[in-house]
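Standup notes, structure subgroup. Blocker cleared on the pyridoxal-5'-phosphate input:
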Amino acid sequence: MMANDPNMYYRSIPSMDELLVLPWVASLEAELGREAVKDIFNEVLADFRRRVRNGDIQPDASTMEMLNELAQNLMNRRARASLCSVVNATGVVVHTNLGRSPLPQEALDAVLDVSRGYSTLEYSLESGSRGQRNAHVEWLLCRMTGAEAAIVVNNNAGAVLLALAATARDREVVVSRGEMVEIGGSFRIPDILAFSGAKMTAVGCTNYTHLRDYADAVTENTSLLLKVHPSNFRIEGFTESVSREELAGLAKSHGLIVMEDLGSGLLEDMDVSLLEGEQTVRRCIEAGVDIVTFSGDKLLGGPQIGCIAGSRELIDKMRGNQLLRALRVDKMTLAAFEAILRMYLKGKSGNIPTMDMLRVSDEELEEKARALMNAMTELLGELSVSSLAVELVETDDAVGGGSFPGTRLPGWGVSVASTAGIRAEKLAARLRETSVPIVTGIRADRLVFHVRTLLDGDCERIVRVFREIYGESREA
Ligand SMILES: *Cc1c(COP(=O)(O)O)cnc(C)c1O
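Run returned:
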């Protein structure tokens, strides 16, 4: 056996000098630097030796070629930007894995303007002295929500944490068992409560919580009644939860705070049947909720940010809390968020991509899908590719972002299937490896390009990528 022949084993492993003069190394060295290139070769060699030791592979005449390929792939991967743009053809509008809300040009312009030089981040032009980071968006948030005061932090999880820490530390917080949600695996209401230093009192049952359940749980140490939007699940059948008006009434009579974690921050009513029943932040404030927390990058359509809107007294407590410093928002985020809020102020929310994708009509989607299908069909004809079947299809899209789990969002798309027996997973993987990675849906062993989430220029990108793949090899 070759693996047992130490001479063969050592001879088959190339030296660093041999590797460094391989023809493809120079261009990658320009990207990565010589030291990183050496380290990556060492990493590949170490892994290779380990596999030989474990008996997984045996070194032979093809070893050099294999190492060559492994190292080249790894270096190519490390030389590319890791966080890069992709085409979202999944039809999931607020796609958390793909960065949630795409930003409109207004927001991008603001980010560029503020971040390429110095800015008024914490500076008051009137007084010529120190200003408040939060001041840039507070008035706008109050305008849009009717709240007395507002503050922003890194994300909504941070908003909930800060709000609880500042108002309910070492006190009791009453929450319904039907609203103990977990979002995205890492945000769990009981855990956030524990982190904030508050004590949780769970009331009611999973499917049914009465007002008297809350009332019975109130003690002299209770600080706050918490309502949480059950964003990513739905309880059906025999169910009851307590309205925010009722909770606000109970809180008032006991001198307690009512807080609502709204999840998605709708700033204005949408005439989209899908979002019916979804409350705007303003409605929550009007119903008597003292503190409302919500995300900036879900339905609101902005950058990742967490907003807290509510009574001046309570927001002032949060301003004085040390956690605010740890959770504070970066200038690029603030710039983008202010620009988004100004679009709402001007009545231009229709130009925010997330809003636009949810409001788009069925006819428009069908037309867009038809255009993509025609462009694909034309390209495949031009390249004489006959191994792909392209079809116009109706799709199930989704709002995403952990909202409206049970709601069907009908859309349109283009399905692409191999007639040569290539699995859809394999085609999908191929599309993720191109110069413009495309993430698609897969249904019944077909790729599905949902057009709802395609932005300007994406159809052209998809066609270009197919040209890239099928222009060089018809097999692909
Ligand atoms: C999404 C969501 C969160 C977490 O918000 P992030 O902005 O992702 O931190 C918290 N609570 C609810 C109800 C949510 O829907």
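Discussed briefly. Residues 155-157, 181, 183, 187, 228-229, 231, 261, 263, 295, 306, 402 surround pyridoxal-5'-phosphate (CB under 6 Å).
Next: hand off to the docking folks.
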